[in-house]
Structures are given as C-alpha cells and as structure tokens.
Amino acid sequence: MQELIVFIVLLAAAGLLYWVNTSFNHTKHKKFVLLGLWIFIFGSSYMLVNSIYDVIQFDDLKETRYQAVIKKLVDIRDSQLAYRDVKGEFQNDWDSLVKFIELDSFTITQRRDSSILDEELTKRYGGVKTYKNIVIIDTIYPKISVEDSLFGLDKRYKNMMYVPYAKDPKTKFILKTDSIPQNGVYIPLFESKISKDIILHDQSKDLRFKENLVKSVDGVNGEYLKVGSITEVNTNGNWPKNYRKEKN
Fold first, then answer.
1. Tens-place pLDDT, residues 60-74
2. What is the pTM of this model?
3. E strands along 119-196, which residues?
4. Which residues contact 183 (CB under 8 A, 6 or more apart)?
5. Could you give the 3-state DSSP secondary structure of residue 216?
6. What separation, in Å, do the N-terminal and C-terminal C-alpha atoms of the chain show?
C-alpha cells in the first residue's frame, strides 16, 4: 500500500511538472516551482525504491529464517510420529520426548500384499481354487534405536524445541496434544507452532503485519508456522513445498 501511494504521488507530481513546464506563465517564479517539484520527485522516487528494496530484503530474510524453523518442525513431527508408533499417543513434554528418543527403540516392519487359498470358498465352489487377499507384515529389524533411526549420530534433537532467530534463544515451540473421536475410536493429535512475530521480531512492524495476513499457495498462511493440528487428524506443516528447498 505504501508503495502504491508513493507511485500515485509521483505520477501526480510528474503531471504537475509537465503543466508547470508548458503552461505556467509566471516566469519569475517558474524556476523555483520547477526546482521544488524536481526535489519532491527525486525524494519520492528514493522513498519508492527504498521501500521496494526493504520488501525484497525482508522476503530473503524471511525465507532463510522460515527454512531454519521448518527443519526443526520436521524433526519434531518425525519424533512425535515415532513416539506414537511406540506409545500409541503423542507427547506434550519436551524432556519426555527427548528422553524417549535417547532411550527407546522400535521394530521396523514392512507391509506387503499377498494371496492365499481360501479353503472355505474352494469347497463351496466344488473344488475350484479360490484365493483371498491378505496383508503380510514382515519384520525388517527386530529392534532399532529411535535415535539411530531418526537422527543417526546427529544430536540436534536435543535442541529441536528452541526457536531459531528468536530474540530470546531459550524460546520454545508451543507443543500441544489432544485426541478426537473417530468411528468410535479416539485418535491422538499433536500440534507444534510458533508465531511469525517471534521469528521476525527485529523486522518492520508494517512488514510483519502484512506477513501475518498472507493467504497464498506460495506463502505461509496465518500468524504461525506450525506442524500438526489439535482440531483435525493432520500431521502436515502449513508451509508450501518451496520452503523445503535448500538455497544455493
């Protein structure tokens, strides 16, 4: 909006400059009026260019910070999904989640479709062999450490709760859990999020205000970067795919 206003003012000033230069008859004052208009136009042009540059700089910085935050949210999601696989629920305490990663293990399995002879239907159809589909679950690894499976030798999970670029380096992501009934069964839910204002705390209030109003397929909609939900069955993040691409 600010850029549009400056642009409109520039157009009006340029029109006035043209009128003064071609139709203004007060020769004595004409050069002072022209000088004033030129100064105004150059000043407004500087403001316009500077505001556009500020937006470009903000977008570059925002993307860098969002990517760092998203990396942590992905680690949080992977850790929560592993916790659910083992415990049957999600965890809303950071210390307990980290302890689980360090100490627990799970069995890695693989599902595959197969078919076997259905003896009952074979008898019913007079000996004509009839098969039924089944799902076979194979155990790939009997027991594997959660830490090794998710992070290998990387210990970054110990700090995954801290928000990158926050003013206070000890600022933690919000972490909530809940459950909702679905087909007679309670489904566990989790959500982890952080306000954009915390990530972009040192940026212009006007630019942060605009960012919080974003509604776009290429942007992060809303006031938070988040993963999961406590209102619906959803373990996805609210960012578009382009934010997962590494910058060259």
1. 999 999 999 999 999
2. 0.70
3. 131-145, 174-182, 185-195
4. none
5. coil
6. 32
